[in-house]
Structure formats: C-alpha cells, structure tokens
Amino acid sequence: MSILTDLRIAAVGDIHLGEDGRGHYRRKLQGIEERADVFMLAGDLTRHGTLEEGKVVADELRDLPIPAVAVLGNHDYHSDMEHEIAEELRDAGVIVLDDDGVVLQCGDMKLGVVGGKGFGGGFAGKCASEFGEREIKNFVAHTRSIAEAWKLALKEIVADERVVLSHYSPIKETLEGEPAEIYPFLGSYLLAEAVDTAGADLILHGHAHKGSPKGMTPGGIRVRNVALPVLGRAYGVYCLDCENGS
Amino acid sequence: MEAPQYVAARVQQALAEDGRTNELGIRVDIRGDQLFLRGQVSEVEQRTRLGQVAHETAPELRLHNEINVVDATEPGEDEHLD
Ligand SMILES: [Fe+2]
Ligand SMILES: [Fe+2]
C-alpha cells in the first residue's frame, strides 16, 4: 500500500535581526507548528554578524515547537564571529549546517537536509575560474570545496526526501531583479552542478533580496529564493509530496 | 566637480560598510543636486539610519529617502511541489 504524506517545510532567509529586534521576531512564528513540520533559515540571520546579534537570533529561535535548521550567510561572517554565533544557535536548539547534513524524523518520513553558506563565482559561461592571481584562485576554490562537500553529504544521506539549504544561489533565474553585474557575488553554478550530480528534491536559498522567487537547476531540481524581501511575508511553506510505500 | 557616478558609488559603499547600516541592496541615484535612496528594509529605524549615513557621505546633496519599510508578519499561502 502506498500513502501520500505531505512534508511541510517553512523557510525564510535574510531576517537580518539587529539588537533592536529582540523580543519582536518570535511573534511572527506563532502557530508555525500548525503550518509546517520543520523550519529552515537560509542565512543572513544577523545584520553585522556580531555575537550580540547572534544571541538575539538564538533567543528568538529558542526551543521552537518544530525542529529548526539554519545555515549562516555572509552578514553572519562579517565580524569573524561565525563559529560563536553557530554555537549560540546550537545552544538554543537550532541545527546549524556547515557544509554537512542532518536527517530529521518528521512523522513517518525521514527528511535529509544538506547545506551551508555556499559562495559566489558566477554562472556557466560567465564565471570566474581558478586562473591567475592567488586571490581569484582562492575565491573559486572556496566555492568548489563547498560544492564538493555538499555532493558527498548528499550521497551519504539516507532519507525519503532531501533538501539543500544554502545562503548563496545555485542558479541565476532566482537572481532576476538583481543587477546582472553582481551575479558572480550572488551565487555559483558549481553548487547546482554538485546537487544535480548527487540528487535532491528541493533547494532553498536567500541572499538575493531583489531576486525572484522561483527557478530550477539544469537537472530539473526546484529552487526557491526565500529571502524575506522576496517572500514579502514571515516565511514561505513548501510541501513535498512524499510517496510512502509500505 | 566630481562626477555624480563616483559620489553615488561612494554613498553606496558607505551604506554597505558603515557599522550602523551594513545594508547592501540600496539603490543610490544622483540627479543634479538631489540624492535618491530606493530599496526595501524591514524596520523604520534602519531606513532612518540609511538616510543619516547617506547624508553624512554627501552632505552637499538634497536627500530623498524613498526606501520602503516592509514588515512581514503573515506566513501566506503554501506551495505544493509535486
Ligand atoms: Fe541578506
Ligand atoms: Fe547575504
């Protein structure tokens, strides 16, 4: 017998909480457990990446009624406190991915989530390559090693559905609305290539505040830009149809 | 006189790099002696700070702070992916 169950994922990126956000953000999440099985945060949780802001985010997300999975964004790295911020979030019960994966039990379903901040470099045909100055080579090599880690993590994970959570974009369709000149700083096709190779059911990202909500990888995996200014609402809810053969 | 493009670029850098704002997605346009800020933020205070930093960077220009404040509270409609 096979039954269809929906796996409901609430997601948002770029909430950019400052210290004046304390005590305000949590009310937006009221009742989230009735709408979704899991909450995903696609990075840029803080404004300047200070430890104080990290603590605000951790307190606002503390002990949510559903599991929360997060990655950090470039803003969360700005003050070189990314590890400390991640620890604050983990202490508050948030799962923080850093180019690795986790499997969550949602009812009868196993949901695998793989991801991390991601990085830039641009898109096939119009991208940086590992050539020339050390600075450019380091830039591209950083993205390449991230993509490699995601591919490995996706291949290792055993789950009914697999979602990739990133800050930077794997495709350019969800960047439409941003100036084309800055696409190389908004994402990289290497991320999409890695996920297409290993396979996944959905990719969520943020970062492109002026981008577009929907796109698809060359391999046909759905991509959603969940940056708060793009959603224009507290979070989006994405339902994966799961066929649960038993 | 400095070309307006350079002034606009300097204002945009200031909005991104100033610790009070660190806002990357603001559009800065200069027409004559007028400075226009456009974009979207989630708090009124942030809009005010952006105006302040822009004014300090180019005090000779008349500032028009046209940034929108969008405070998203409702979760909205579900999307079914099948
Ligand atoms: Fe952001
Ligand atoms: Fe970002």
Written description of the protein model:
The complex is a heterodimer of chains A (246) and B (82). Chain A has 246 residues and is an alpha/beta fold. Chain A is built from 7 helices and 13 strands. In chain A, helix 5 packs parallel to helix 6. Chain B has one domain: 2-Layer Sandwich (Alpha-Beta Plaits), CATH 3.30.70. Helix content of chain B is 34%, strand content 27%. In chain B, strands 1-2-4 form a 3-stranded mixed beta sheet, with helices on one face. In chain B, a hairpin with a 2-residue loop joins strand 1 and strand 2. The chains are: A alpha/beta (246), B alpha/beta (82). At the A-B interface, strand 1, helix 7 and strand 13 of A face strand 6 of B. Strand 13 of chain A pairs parallel with strand 6 of chain B. One fe (ii) ion binds next to helix 3 of chain A. One fe (ii) ion binds next to loops of chain A.
Oligomer: heterodimer
Structural class of chain A: alpha/beta
CATH architecture of chain B: 2-Layer Sandwich
Which term fits the overall shape of chain B?
Answer: elongated
Number of domains of chain B: 1
CATH topology annotation of chain B: Alpha-Beta Plaits
Number of domains of chain A: 1
Quote the average pLDDT of chain B: 90
What is the rounded distance between the termini of chain B? 59 Å
Strand order of the largest sheet of chain A: 5-6-9-10-12-11
Average pLDDT rating of chain A = 93
Named CATH topology of chain A: Purple Acid Phosphatase, chain A, domain 2
Bound molecules: fe (ii) ion
The most extensive contact between chains is: A-B, 35 and 22 residues
Enumerate the strands of the largest sheet of chain B in spatial order, edge to edge or round the barrel.
1-2-4
Unreliable spans of chain B are: none
Name of the CATH class of chain B: Alpha Beta
**Number of helical stretches of at least 4 residues of chain A:** 7
Rg of chain B from C-alpha positions? Answer: 16 Å
Structural class of chain B: alpha/beta
Q: Helicity level of chain A, as a percent range? A: 25-40%
